[in-house]
């Protein structure tokens, strides 16, 4: 009887070690440019100007993890609309090795409002990021 309890205990210990969660580092924000239009930095923010000083904004998500193992990322972008007619746009699925990104660019005719991006890692919803597109600054 004691052996069967010990064996069951070992089974649960082995199962729990297989279910270790990978910690992903997510940075969502705005790509910063110099006066010549060259990217020079990244500002973490969820407030994105549609047009900044007469130029469209480049923004998005940088994702990384400690190990170099491949993982896939996919995204679904939820546009502001009336609640009975939610519009979603599916992004391209990518294979990432260690660090990758999903970037988007605003256009003058984009509508200010509350947006969301669903991030899928290895086909499973990992996080929903809510952000706001603001009128020109």
Q: What is the fold's blueprint, element by element?
A:
Layout: H1 2-18, E1 24-33, E2 39-44, E3 47-49, E4 51-52, E5 55-56, E6 58-65, E7 70-79, E8 87-90, E9 94-97, E10 99-105, E11 113-121, E12 124-134
Parallel strand pairs: 3-12
Antiparallel strand pairs: 1-2, 1-6, 4-5, 6-10, 7-8, 7-9, 7-11, 11-12
Mean pLDDT: 83
SSE series: HEEEEEEEEEEEE
The percent range for helix content is 10-25%
Proportion of residues in β-strands:
over 45%
Textual characterization of the structure:
The strands form three sheets. Strands 3, 7, 8, 9, 11 and 12 form a six-stranded mixed sheet that branches. Strand 11 (113-121) and strand 12 form a beta hairpin. By secondary structure, this protein is mainly β. The chain has one helix and twelve strands. The protein is 12% helix and 55% strand. The protein starts with a helix and ends with a strand.
């Amino acid at each position: 009887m004691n052996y069967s309890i010990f064996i069951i205990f070992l089974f649960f210990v082995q199962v729990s070690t297989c279910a270790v969660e990978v910690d992903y580092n997510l940075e969502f924000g705005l790509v910063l440019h110099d006066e010549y239009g060259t990217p020079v930095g990244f500002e973490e923010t969820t407030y994105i100007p549609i047009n900044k000083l007469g130029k469209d904004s480049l923004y998005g998500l940088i994702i990384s993890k400690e190990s170099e193992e491949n993982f896939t990322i996919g995204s679904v972008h939820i546009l502001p609309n009336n609640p009975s007619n939610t519009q979603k746009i599916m992004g391209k699925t990518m294979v990432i090795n260690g660090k990758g990104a999903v970037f988007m660019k605003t256009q003058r005719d984009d509508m200010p409002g509350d947006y969301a991006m669903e991030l899928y890692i290895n086909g499973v919803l990992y996080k929903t990021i809510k952000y706001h597109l603001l009128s020109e600054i």
